[in-house]
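DOMAIN: structural biology
WANTED: fold as tokens
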Amino acid sequence: MNELSSDNINTDQDGSHNRVLNGIISGLGAGFLTTIACAPFDVLKIRLQVQGSLKLGHYQGGAMKMLHKIRREEGIKGLFRGIGPAMLTLPLFLGIYWPIYNSIRCFPC
């Protein structure tokens, strides 16, 4: 009787691990984590770039001081404003990029 196990599901006929599936899962996970971790800094960067043209006020001081000001005035949501489009693009890009990169990197393998 052939039992299903994670080893049987994640291997090809020749016994090697399914690198494509692992690359997709790794890329998606890395994309989500990177987007969440960097979102406040992206908000800060964009605010600094457009601070004169929009009525957002001028930001002075260091980056941490500016992040605290955004959090104090707009709450946590203010630090993650605009994260939706980034969550759609970066994880998908990395989910495609990593398996292709691993295939090319291990081409002679």
